[in-house]
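So, can you check what follows?
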Amino acid sequence: MSDVHEAHSGSAVLRCATPPGAEELAALGAEIRAWLGREVAFTVAVDPTLIGGYVLLIDGKLYDFSIAARLQQIKQALHK
């Protein structure tokens, strides 16, 4: 699934484990607007390897809020 939402200035890619609902997309769009102080158009792509959560690529910066990333952080902490 790939779709574009909020066609305004700026762009982002939102990868998530399952297809987000309209309400979830609207809430995330509002969070991104508040965070960046501007509108962002985002493309949605489903990536089941994330397990849950999402990954945002905005202006060349990666923000990983996925369960897979969190599990990797825990694994690294346990091996210290």
Q: What stands out?
A: The longest helix spans residues 22-36. The first strand starts at residue 2 and ends at 5.
